[in-house]
Specification:
Layout lengths: L16 H18 L10 H7 L4 E5 L4 E3 L8 E6 L2 E6 L5 E7 L4 E2 L1 H6 L6 E4 L3 E6 L1 H10 L1 H27 L2 H16 L1 E4 L3 E5 L4 H8 L3 H13 L3 E4 L2 E4 L2 H10 L11
Antiparallel strand pairs: 1-8, 2-7, 3-6, 3-8, 4-5, 4-7, 9-10, 10-12, 11-12
Helix pairs in contact: 4-5, 5-6, 6-7, 6-9, 7-8
């Protein structure tokens, strides 16, 4: 199925029948796209029509920064196309990747809700198309449209689960185990099956430096561990495309790399 595009130009009333029909078609297309977004999927068609013109489309290029940690911006973003990386910057200037967002994902909602500065930086991994809504408009629609409030609760619960998985990976696994853990989670979300249950392709556009920042390691270490996994038939990495070659073996390798299994000794 061909991908649909979202035209953010407000619908206008036309004196001609053909123009009116075109407006109706454009609106129907936009509503169809919005209904596929989990945040908005529980809203009625009428409520979506009331909200549609408050969503503005913006495009960004690879490596563009959408907002920075500490910024006072308050907009909420929905990804139409591309991948956005969310990362924290340490006092020493190092980066730790927190999350990746792709098509139909939502980010930036915390600042829109609690009115505090941005807690992390959002950067485009590749060319990105977003829908943007202001804090004031989002607050209005959340208060007046129960379907949106329900969708927001659903999105926040999913992010809480991700945070729990992130914390679990830090507590349980060494750096290699954490990297495998994240690759498994992202494959479940974004992976394309090559052989169902066995082999998957994960096209995240992440450099080895980006992968290193996910687990607090150096790029050289990622290069070395990827080479080892490739030789063992677990994972391949080529030009920012990751292939899970044997998912059951990858899961077993991750599970073997807990801190307890690394010989911590008796307490």
């Amino acid at each position: 199925m061909a991908k649909r595009t979202y035209d953010s130009t407000p619908t206008t009333t036309s004196a001609t029948t053909s123009a009116s029909a075109a407006d109706d078609t454009a609106l129907a297309r936009r509503l169809e796209i919005l209904q596929q977004i989990p945040l908005l999927a529980h809203m009625s068609s009428n409520d979506l029509r009331q909200m549609v013109d408050d969503l503005r489309q913006r495009t960004f290029s690879r490596n563009d920064t959408i907002f920075r940690q500490g910024d006072e911006s308050r907009e909420l973003y929905i990804v139409l196309k591309g991948i956005v990386r969310i990362f924290k910057i340490s006092p020493g200037g190092g980066e730790t990747t927190i999350e990746l967002f792709s098509t139909h994902d939502v980010f930036g909602e915390l600042a829109a809700i609690d009115n505090l500065p941005r807690s992390a930086t959002a950067q485009c991994v590749d060319n990105v198309s977003l829908l943007v809504i202001s804090q004031q408009q989002f607050d209005h629609h959340t208060r007046t449209r129960p379907g949106l409030a329900y969708g927001l609760a659903h999105v926040l619960s999913q992010k809480l689960r991700w945070t729990s998985a992130f914390a679990e990976s830090i507590a349980q696994f060494d750096a290699a185990g954490r990297l495998l853990h994240f690759l498994i989670l992202y494959t479940q979300r974004y992976g394309k099956p090559i052989r169902e249950g066995i082999a998957y392709e994960l096209e995240l556009g992440l450099s080895q430096s980006d992968l290193a920042s996910m687990v607090g390691a150096r790029r050289e270490w990622v290069n070395r561990i990827m080479g080892d996994w490739r030789r063992r038939g677990l994972v391949d990495y080529d030009r920012e495309v990751i292939q899970i070659l044997d998912m059951p073996a990858v899961i077993a390798e991750r599970d073997s790399r807990t801190e307890a299994n690394l010989g911590g000794g008796d307490w």
